[in-house]
Amino acid sequence: MNIASLVVRAKPENFARLETQYRDIPGVEVHARCERGGHMVVTVEDGEGYATSDSILAVSTAEHVLSVTLAYEYTDEGLELQEA
Fold it and tell me: Which residues form the signal peptide (predicted)?
């Protein structure tokens, strides 16, 4: 499992367009928006047939995005129990 949380900066008048674009990106969900500050909180989760990194890139390069900050990332890859 891979999960990332992003803060997307954009002009508030473009939020609706961005949310529409983000619905088409696998594993992406918009959780909050602050029109006053021009921020959106977005999570990206991996799934079968796509990687988190591809979805993060798609979020970052979407039309009307001014900047994206990676706020949090989690992976459970490599956490298998090891024998002592």
Answer: none
